[in-house]
Please model this.
Amino acid sequence: MLGRVESDDELVVRLRIGDQDAFAVLVDRYHTRLTRFAHSFTPRAELAEDIAQETWLGLLRGLDRFEGRASLRTWLFQICANRARTLAAKEGRLIPVDPTDPDAPTVDPARFGPDGAWSQPPSPWPDAAAQEQEQDAELVERVRVAITRLPDSQQQVVTLRDVEGLSAAEVCRVLELTEGNQRVLLHRGRARVRALLEQEVATK
Amino acid sequence: MKLSWFAPWRGKNCGPAGSESADLVCREAVELVTAYLDDALEPGQRAALERHLAGCEHCDEYFAQIRLVRQTAAQVEPEDLAPAARVDLMALYQQWRVDPESASSDGSDASDIADS
Model:
């Protein structure tokens, strides 16, 4: 079956009958994604690796109860978030609450005049329209770094929504957020990434 | 998020003279971008925002930049799996096959999450 990419569902079926190769494929597919996500809960790389490993144990132990109502991917991230919270708590590290006021503006109010119109508008990014069409390795790297600089909760939502491509409903489920809170965190996170990139363009 | 949707001081429009997109000011428009991209605005709000964007190049640019951030984030690839990590994980699998209860670093159970 060379060249055919097996779906997660097919791999789960094989995993249930004890097929080690199916586990290897899933590990290749998701382990570094899980580690990256776990890293948004802790600055310690080795703890993030532990969390990702524990996630696989959670998967194996929960296989019998996995009913396929959520996607396997969502379920993995859910187990991972759960382990991250537990391990971080065990380490005496409280999960910090996002210190930003959810109602605070995401664009510096000083950039608008008294009438609410831009007084310092965003400077157009170089060929922003063209970049929407083509991959730009340097821009991708800047965005990657900017996301790692977000407050934890914003980083978690932006990682799952924009990097991993989960739906809003899936992110709410993984992170135990209401739809409104999920959107606020996504909104603040994206605006912050944009602002960081704007600074870099300005200082380049 | 509360939106100061009907701000009393609104009125001046940054769009070209004669434009009728006077419902929203830029400061309010930029706070709607995420709800807009998620298609979560009320129809009236959405229409007002689209009128504003049609007449305001700066907000249009801002929205384009946010869309670019979102689109670029989707291109951030995970790292390759290190061979040593793969070996560790396959050893974890073997250990689980032999004794499902012992294969844990701390004995706690991460599988108590239903997928429903």
Summary: Residues 193 and 199 of chain A are 10 Å apart (CA to CA). Chain A touches chain B through 80 residues (CB under 8 Å). Chain A has a mean pLDDT of 89.
